[in-house]
Amino acid sequence: MSGQKNDYGKRSHYQSDNPLNGGGKRRNPEDERESNAIGPEDTVYRYLCPNKKIGSIIGRGGDIVKQLRSETQAKIRINDTVLGCEERVVIIYSSSEETNRFGENDDLVAPALDALFKVHDRIIAEEPVDDQFDEFQIVTVRLLVPADQIGCVIGKGGQVVQNIRNETRAQIKILGDDHLPRCALTSDELLQISGDAIVVRKALFQLACRLHDNPSRSQHQLLSSSSNLYKTSGGYAGFAVPNSALTGPAQEFSLRLVCPTENIGSVIGKGGVIIKQIRQESGAMIKVDSSASEGDDCLITVSAKEAFQEPSPTIDAVLRLQPRCSEKTEREPGDAVFTTRLLVPASRIGCLIGKGGAIISEMRSLTRASIRILSKENLPKVASEDEEMVQITGDINVVSSALLQVTTRLRANIFETSGYASSSGRYDSEFDGYGSYGGSQIGGSGYGAYGAYTGRMKP
């Protein structure tokens, strides 16, 4: 691509800054990495897709993303939702060898660049036309770029980015840390391009070429859980696994939700369509035991065989179920309070309370939710003798945040007591990612803001 003229602009003065380029074409020996890993010389893009548009690149049953992979021969990975984040990271990568025909002039580009524009076109396809100027479609594109790579976009004294602004007339900004979304890594910069769709496309091409020619020194770590340390706001965005937890066999992990009997139809759906969808998307087993219900409650048991270093199917399913199995009370029109109830073995309740109530106080402070451990006399009839009940109350986002805190701690306690999560047998500084939710161990696990899934499920 270096120095080629194309229908998106001229790149003659955008020569590579990397001596390893070999004229813009780099080959990566296959024996240096696994087939799905990101190599140090690969072409990599991380495109931020609004949550509401993610379906346009996934498709039903993943058919669209499969087609995009097949057409471009690039790898496309869609990261899970991060709690409180309105965007998802789409990682697009491939060998840097320029093999794909692109644009009106059939220029050769790397598969990843070809795939980047196919993803981009699908995401902006439904953007409305500006009301003032009918012929214009105003769009904004956001990319995450490693800090050690952003210099190739800016240039000495900002000359490179200014040249691209002048040539394309696009608004191009490198936004500060306070604008980084929660799904960003701690070492990321946020590159934003705005303007008319045609202008943005030209600028995106020039910037993508710069990133192609100057790979990040850290990009091979992007798919590694150990590098999955995400920007946090309010204490956490999910979790990243401590190094001490990367070994050990799978464990059975289960959670028991107390659901009002009147909510069961919303959980199951017509013909079981909702519960089947949640089972399929989460990978967890979900059992609704209405036969054991007494009074106004029934039990929903969610379980899966899990490895500690992997995202939890059980927590994923519980967060998807939460808006449907919670009791909803309208304080006033448009102002609803949700109450979620979880049964916990008495032997594990201590990991939620902490010494002197320190842990539960911290969770309350972080989430602003009402989190209570109910006394024995207030337990529902469906509870077993050796169980206690955690009750979480607040608006849906607050309750989802608190439920993630509670369930992640319970999961960590299961693995810790089994000897796979921590050799110390206690929550210490090494295990801070689960023990206190305050350290940089917390990262993007992919549990996400599943309270928002109420809009996806069929009623």
Structural class per helix/strand content? alpha+beta
For the record, the CATH architecture of the largest domain stands as 2-Layer Sandwich
Kindly provide the name of the CATH class of the largest domain: Alpha Beta
Euclidean distance between termini CA atoms: 50 Å
Number of beta-strand segments: 17
* Major β-sheet profile: 7 strands, antiparallel
H-E string = EEEHHEEEEHEHHEEHEHHEEHEEHHEEHH
Radius of gyration based on Cα positions? 24 Å
The shape is elongated
Number of helices: 13
Mean pLDDT: 77
Strand content: 15-25%
Number of domains: 2
Model regions low in confidence, pLDDT < 50 over at least 5 residues: 2-33, 225-247, 421-459
Q: What level of helicity do the residues show?
A: 25-40%
CATH topology of the largest domain: TATA-Binding Protein
Label this structure with key terms.
7-stranded antiparallel β-sheet; 6-stranded antiparallel β-sheet; disordered N terminus; 2 domains; elongated; TATA-Binding Protein
